[in-house]
Design a protein that fits this description.
Blueprint lengths: L4 H7 L6 H11 L12 H7 L5 H30 L3 E8 L6 E9 L1 H19 L8 H35 L8 H22 L3 H5 L4 H29 L8 H8 L11 H4 L3 E8 L7 H14 L5 E8 L4 E9 L4 H29 L3 H7 L4 H11 L6 H7 L6 H31 L7 H11 L5 H4 L9 H21 L4 E3 L6 H16 L6 E7 L16 E4 L2 E3 L2 E3 L4 E3 L7 E3 L3 E7 L8 E7 L12 E8 L4 H7 L2 E3 L4
Parallel strand pairs: 6-8, 14-16
Antiparallel strand pairs: 1-2, 3-4, 4-5, 7-13, 8-13, 9-12, 9-16, 10-11, 14-15
Helix pairs in contact: 1-4, 2-4, 4-5, 5-6, 6-7, 6-9, 7-9, 15-17, 17-18, 17-20
Length: about 650
């Protein structure tokens, strides 16, 4: 009994069909009455079926696999016999109105259908590779063929529908005349709408896709559409050849422009065709402003040429809302490629005329600030000029290698100065190039770029640059000149070694240079560094050509300006200022290190040396050192006069 229990369970399995029972009879040689649907326990014991457990188990496993295939095929059949297209009514909006025109039906939700198709075909291919497919092989192959056809038809259908809807926007309600292509589209339109009407009445996917001749119908429609599109592309190419900037637009955008009678329709595409032009200023002919004198001379011509519906382009407007008026208003009627070509020519002509006018007025009529306000586009010329003045970055590693054998405190100062100067030039290069790109419309204006633009416009040093440069009150032009002089001094220092004459205003931190002078003197004379100072001696030399070549080992400073007093070169002392003279350039001044206890300042005014005429702030910033200036008058007189020396003029 126990040995028969597994057999009873196996024979009771629902997967066993009549063919499987016949196979059991054939392989066990046991006669089983298949006409009797009842198999009793007594029958099982009598037939000794437990002896054939392995054979029955093998047949049962095959039956189970075949049952699974049968269920899968049943599910696929049930799914595709009931699956329907999502059909929606198709409406087309009439241009410029809220009117909707019903244009038949369209199918939607195709992606989900294709995904289901892919899953079903994948399952069928898996079944096809199974060794149990046997009796279902024909059915599986048939379904693979049906679903493959449905997949091909739906993909083709989707392409046709997309292209039909695209061409519908062009041909239906268009103002353009397309000739034979319009007739082809009418044929295409009727055929496709007929298919969609039939599908709306029976939306079953299987019926719609395997309908006799359906694939060929869609294929013929696609061939017509492709022929229309080919001719349409050739038509658009002729437009692009007449106005090359149309190449920047897609076919849809270009057709939208060509098909519109309103010139304002081109406004949204101008930025694609022209850098930094946001719009054109269009006006109706009766708004066209003509001077009275010119109007009297041209009344007859205007009456003849201007129609009631004429629209004119009179100016172009940038993204920054700057407007440049055209010298000659351009009529914008007729073929868009013609009047856009005329507008482009007028842009160039008006710009050239404006340039010539600007050059003329800059030279003969207006002061610089008025000229800059009127001809803002010349900021670009200013930018190019500044870029030419910025030197290339200095290679600090090469400079260090050059001075490797002669490293002194002054050399360290040079390294520090070059490092700061390189940082300044990098900031200038970066900000100027970004501003140039912004003015050309290649990048958008940031707050910082807008600030730099305003400062350059007013001839001032941008705040960004000021944070990387020595304190100054110079205007932009004077500062650029001083910037060049700084660079020349650095170059001379690099190539010739320590300088005999130094301009302290050309150093980022002049105090470090003076400290290095004291360090060298302290080491040379073995003085305690905290017991060393220096005094100054004003020479009679005005420039380097006056200096005695035999003089060695001294530091000379140039470029200092005396404020609040004058200097008598012959008598070597302070005097009263000349009438209307606010500052006086000093001769070369010697810097002489000395021990503090030996320093005698009788009759010498300890004159503060400031970076600019702002002198110093509450934190003491701005004071560089104190110079010794000889005076025959009481020193309090000069102190009350506020006498000082300046590194920079305003």
């Amino acid at each position: 009994f126990r040995s028969s229990l597994p057999i009873m369970v196996d024979l009771k399995n629902e997967a066993l069909r009549e063919r499987h029972w016949r196979q059991i009879i054939q392989e066990t040689h046991i006669d089983i009455d298949l006409t009797n649907n009842i198999l009793t326990l007594e029958n099982i014991f009598q037939m000794n079926l437990h002896q054939y457990h392995d054979i029955i188990q093998s047949i049962l496993q095959t039956a189970i696999k075949e049952l699974q295939i049968e269920k899968n095929l049943h599910d696929i059949q049930q799914q595709w016999d009931t699956m329907r297209f999502q059909i929606h009514k198709h409406y087309r909006h009439t241009l410029g109105t809220n009117i909707q025109q019903e244009r038949g039906f369209i199918i939607t939700g195709v992606d989900d259908i294709l995904q289901t198709l892919e899953d079903s075909i994948l399952l069928l291919n898996t079944i096809l590779t199974s060794r149990f497919v046997g009796i279902y092989l024909t059915q599986v192959e048939q379904w693979i063929g049906i679903l493959s056809l449905i997949s091909d038809v739906i993909k083709l259908w989707t392409i046709v529908q997309q292209k039909w809807m695209y061409l519908e926007n062009i041909f239906i309600g268009s103002n353009l005349q397309y000739g034979e292509d319009a007739k082809r589209f009418d044929t295409t339109d009727k055929l496709y709408r007929k298919i969609m009407f039939e599908t709306s009445r029976n939306s079953l996917i299987k019926d719609a896709c395997i309908h006799p001749g359906r694939y060929d119908e869609l294929k013929s429609i696609l061939n017509l559409i492709e022929k229309i599109q080919k001719n349409l592309n050739e038509y658009l190419n002729t437009k692009r050849q007449l106005f090359s900037r149309f190449y920047f637009l897609s076919d849809d955008e270009l057709l939208s422009i060509i098909g519109s009678l309103n010139p304002n329709h081109i406004q949204e595409y101008l930025q694609k065709m022209f850098d930094n032009i946001s719009s054109l200023n269009f006006i109706h002919y009766d708004q066209l402003l003509i001077s009275k004198e010119k109007q009297q001379q041209q009344n007859e011509l205007i009456d003849e040429q201007i129609q009631d519906n004429s629209i004119y382009a009179i100016a172009m407007i940038s993204l920054e809302k700057e407007e440049m008026n055209f010298l000659n208003p351009i009529e914008c009627n007729g073929k868009v490629e013609i009047w856009m070509s005329n507008i482009e020519k007028e842009m160039k002509y008006s710009n050239r005329w404006l340039t010539k006018e600007a050059i003329f007025y800059y030279r003969f009529k207006q002061n610089r600030l008025e000229w800059m306000r009127k001809y803002i586009e010349f900021v670009l010329s200013l930018i190019d000029d500044i870029l030419q003045q910025i030197p290339p970055k200095k290679d600090l590693n090469i400079i260090k290698q050059k001075f490797k054998q002669n490293l002194t405190p002054l050399t360290i100062v040079l390294f520090q100065e070059i490092q700061r100067f390189n940082l300044l030039t990098s900031i200038m290069w970066k900000s100027i190039n970004e501003l140039k790109q912004a003015l050309n419309g290649q990048i958008s204006f940031s707050f910082q770029l807008d600030e730099i633009n305003k400062y350059l416009y007013h001839g001032q040093i941008p705040l960004l640059w000021r944070s990387y440069t020595p304190q100054t009150k110079k205007s932009l032009g004077n500062w650029i000149e001083h910037f060049q002089q700084r660079n020349q001094q650095y170059e001379k220092w690099i190539h010739n070694g320590e300088l005999k004459i130094i301009n302290l205003s050309g150093l980022h931190v002049p105090e470090s240079y003076l400290a290095a002078i004291l360090q060298i003197a302290a080491r040379k004379n073995q003085w305690p560094l905290d017991k060393v100072t220096f005094y100054t001696n004003v020479t009679k030399w005005q420039n380097i050509d006056d200096v005695d070549a035999s003089i060695q080992g001294i530091c000379l400073i140039e470029g200092l300006y005396l404020e609040g007093a004058g200097w008598d070169i012959e008598n070597h002392c302070l005097i009263e200022q000349s009438h209307k003279q606010l500052i006086q350039m000093m001769p070369l001044i010697k810097i002489i290190p000395i021990e503090t206890h030996r320093f005698n300042i009788n009759n010498y005014l300890r004159t503060p040396v400031y970076v600019t005429s702002d002198r110093r702030n509450a934190m003491g910033v701005g004071l560089v050192f104190e110079a010794s200036l000889y005076s025959k008058k009481d020193l309090s007189h000069w102190i009350l006069n506020g006498v000082c020396l300046l590194l920079n003029t305003d």
